[in-house]
Each structure stands twice: as C-alpha cells, then as structure tokens.
Please model this.
Amino acid sequence: MKKIFLLSLLITFISVVSFGQDNDSIVNQKKKPKSSYRIGKASVTVWENKSKSGQVFKNFTVEKTYEKGGQWFSSSSFSETELLELKAVIDKAIAEESVKVK
Model:
C-alpha cells in the first residue's frame, strides 16, 4: 500500500512539473500581433515575422467574430453584408500598414 501511494505521489509530481514547464514554454512562445483592425464583425490581424536572413515581412489574417449564447466564436465565413465590412477593414489595413504592390 505504501509503495502504491509513493508511486502515485511520484507520478503526480512528475505530471505537475511537466505541465508547468510546458505551460511556461507555451506562454513564452506566444506571439502578439503587430496590430489589429475591425469594422463590424470583420477583423484583420497583422503579424510581423522575420525570415532566417533577417528580412521583416507581414502576414495578415481575416476573421469574423460573433457571440452566440454568451460565448464568442470566430469564423472565416461571411454574409454579403459582412463581406462589405471585410472589404472595408482590408482597405483600412492596407492603408495603415503601407502595403506595397510589387
């Protein structure tokens, strides 16, 4: 009985230590967006990254956020009206981020 208890205690300790280390590394790896733009339900998030050669480049993500039953959800599906909001917010992001056509 004592061996089972000690084994259980050891497994619990290892699990807690492992979880703590994984959690810390995940928090340290999370990257914040450079900026975000929203019009209505549509939003554009700008992420800034560096290539291995050190060149800085941007990636843009688009999504719709909405509330249903007290919970928040996101989607990449847009109605006709939301599509117009998306177009407007993309135009705003392009203007603010000085996106250049090559």
Notes: The chain has a mean pLDDT of 78. The first strand starts at residue 35 and ends at 39. The chain has two domains: 1-30, 35-96. The chain is about 45% helix and 30% strand.
